[in-house]
């Protein structure tokens, strides 16, 4: 009886799993069925930047919202910031039960690459905290991928930060491999800045070191406004522009709100063969109504009220099917050519020496929303930063787009927990090993 009770507890503690989503060529594929996977999602950070909380650490919050995700027909959410000192087990299990994957930004307002001083903000403490976030989520098979940064480059004057984005991507991929996790895609979410968008995309996907190349690229794009079209919106030109890009691309934010209630007519093009040879779906900005007025729902405590935008998006998603077959993806595209005309070095910085131990020994516990790592450097040892001017803000604290302010675009707020906590989760294999032992004892 005792063993049966323990066995039932352990079975109830093992998270439901979904087939991992893999990168094949410039597409996402379901690892079990081999079918093409298109992201149908929303950006999710209730409370926004003014009240930064972790929606995946509060089971009441995620339980409140997951039924609406299902009603919309979603298969993915993106979360901009999480507290790596807290447990996410229950919410990740509920998402998996609902068939929903997660794209997670591993940075927080206090731990991200600074536009004004990227060399200082890229340091061992920064890496320790984002590695701890990887530890907290890597064993959930419904983690589709990690973003190493969001709109760090938001104008051409801060393009010199790009090598530090690549360094962060490289270190995340090295850490995932060193800790024997599955091969989880690591990418970047880019602002749609016309003067640099293509050359930045190429740079992030260039070079002989495959670990420093992104596995996926998200684009925050608000160019389809109102009753537009595939041609009028500029979507057609972007498909041509990115044609031949060798890794999966998707819209990591979309949904222009400059013309009132959004009809989401772009959905019909996003999930069509007009775009499927280059793009693999997208995420609508955003789930909850915040100060920037992009919400699909109004939240008041435990109560959720759907808005007209919600109803229009649900109608469009439910009436639009994914393209049949492969959707025109390719496995023959090559990495991009590196730029040769930038007026600063494109060399990817070396990993900080003090961070080398994490690859072998693990990152240990994270510091959650209380972490402040942007100035954790020795200024005397820093090489000179580009002389180009930059706004004195970090990539998580400035305006994220000319059309809206992202959920991750605030100064850090005080966490509700002051404890460091434990950032790592028990590996799933450990659960199953214990289950097998207890099963044997019952025989």
TrEMBL record:
Residues 383-422 have a biased composition (Low complexity). It is a lipid-anchor; GPI-anchor. SUPFAM superfamilies: (Trans)glycosidases (SSF51445). Residues 378-422 are annotated as: Disordered. This is 1,3-beta-glucanosyltransferase. Keywords: Glycoprotein, Glycosyltransferase, GPI-anchor, Lipoprotein, Membrane, Signal, Transferase. It is found in: Cell envelope; Cell membrane; Membrane. Its EC number is 2.4.1.-. Splits internally a 1,3-beta-glucan molecule and transfers the newly generated reducing end (the donor) to the non-reducing end of another 1,3-beta-glucan molecule (the acceptor) forming a 1,3-beta linkage, resulting in the elongation of 1,3-beta-glucan chains in the cell wall. InterPro entries: GH (IPR017853), Glucanosyltransferase (IPR004886). GO terms for biological process: fungal-type cell wall (1->3)-beta-D-glucan biosynthetic process; fungal-type cell wall organization. It is an enzyme of class 2 (transferase).
